Amino acid sequence: MRYAYAITGALLLGGTAIAVTSTQPLGAQTAQNEGMQAAAPVGAPGSLADMVEKLQPAVVNISTRQRVQVQNPFAGTPFGDLFGGGQGAQPQTRQAQSLGSGFLISADGYIVTNAHVVSAGAEGATVDSITVTLTNREEYSAKLIGRDTASDLAVLKIDAKKALPFVKFGDSTKSRVGDWVVAIGNPYALSGTVTAGIISAVHRNTGGGSDRFIQTDASINQGNSGGPMFDMRGNVIGINSQILSPSGGNVGIGFAIPSEQAVPVIDTLRKGESVKRGYLGVQISPLSEDMADSLGLAKNRGEFVQSVEPKQGAANAGIKAGDVIVKVNNREVTPDETLSYIVGGLPIGQKVPIELIRGGQRTTVTAVVGQRPPEEQLANFGSGDSDDDFSDKSPQGSAAAAQQALGIAVQPLTPSIARQIGAAPDTRGLVISSVDQSTDAGAKGLQRGDVILSANNRPVTTEAEFNAAIAQVKSSGRNAVLLQVQRRGGQAGFIAVRLRDK
């Protein structure tokens, strides 16, 4: 812009400057990108072509054919007979197909992929066949050797009359944030797609208690699942498994199962055996800021025991609901090193020291690691019906709740009320008669008919005991009260409720 204004000024003052400029011969013109070559980042190759050329033949496409039972949407309607969906119509069978990626780990045809790639994609669906396609377009029918849904890993086998190209695993424990990685897979059925990026995080917990992932900004999309993540030496350090995306497409956040976790599982599945994991038999929750405040502990150190399963390792060791487990086998329990993650990797039958905090005092117990039950059985542990059967709500109760320090109005749990709300006859505590929904208690789901068994780990059966527990919290300078709450049909659980703002 400054140059443009200077020329304009010369035109206004006279033609001399322009005349001098216009008589100069034009210089030789060259393209802006003539002879240009960008330098490779330090530690990265100038090109990935040679490495990819060697690795691609070991990466395969995996497709499944499935049968899905679907109910005719017109069944039982006036249009049912017209569209074949009368009262007696049977569910109809539809064909479905899924696509994913995998990679060969041996010359005789063993293949690693994700469990969800070779699983039925819908309830009532069954997988009829699995087809593996190599980069040279050769197709093979694959046999499922083993599958582990907890780790999302599966092993397949194809039979070829020749030795097949394969790749080996590397050591993901040596991976660092910022390292370059390459992903090869089958996104959106575009076979042999290569993407590159860096490791964004290691040991990323995406919400599961026992999962840990390598996070990358290399493009991972639908269909990349089961494909390999390579380091710059061409070793497999991860199996691409998940993406985080509001739109369903790549936003630069992909996750791969680290080889350090995958290899033991794959070795077990390859032998035709089932994967066994350690188990203590506790239902746990993170030590949130509110819960830590209610206990006077530092947050993000340890996990809170909500309930204990009878006759399992934790119960036999004397661990109780309300304990905070801070160390297992001399490893600190943190958001990155969760209890489930640590225990899941321990040998079954091993005796391990467990350090916990109970009533403000540290103590150590010894537990024997058990075997983790099937996921279906675990789903029933701690579950229950949350329906509220406590009736006769009144405006007076809501007004009373609004006046309380926690936004909760309570009353003694009489045998009559216990029958109305479905509580066990021997239950002792206070029943919540109303909740101020504008308070933390309302935000955390407390409701009329819930039974408060204890406050700050002290049993409460009268309103005076409840108020005394709250007063003790205030006098100690804390801002939350730890409540043990029983809901009909469910296990008793702990909730830290913040005092209402004054």
UniProtKB/TrEMBL annotation:
Taxonomy, superkingdom: Bacteria
Active site: 116 (charge relay system), 152 (charge relay system), 225 (charge relay system)
Localization per Swiss-Prot or TrEMBL: Periplasm
GO biological process, one term: proteolysis
Cited SMART domains: PDZ
GO molecular function, one term: serine-type endopeptidase activity
InterPro entries: PDZ, PDZ_sf, Pept_S1C_Do, Peptidase_S1_PA, Peptidase_S1C
UniProt signal peptide: 1-19
Reactions it catalyzes: Acts on substrates that are at least partially unfolded. The cleavage site P1 residue is normally between a pair of hydrophobic residues, such as Val-|-Val
Keyword line: Hydrolase, Periplasm, Protease, Repeat, Serine protease, Signal, Stress response
Record-listed substrate binding positions: 116, 152, 223-225
Region (Disordered): 371-398
Pfam family, one: PDZ_2
Keyword Transferase in record: no
Every PDZ domain range: 265-342, 393-488
EC annotation from Swiss-Prot or TrEMBL: 3.4.21.107
Similarity comment: Belongs to the peptidase S1C family.
Name listed for the protein in its UniProt record: Probable periplasmic serine endoprotease DegP-like
Naturally occurring in which organism (per UniProt): Sphingobium phenoxybenzoativorans
Lineage: Bacteria, Pseudomonadati, Pseudomonadota, Alphaproteobacteria, Sphingomonadales
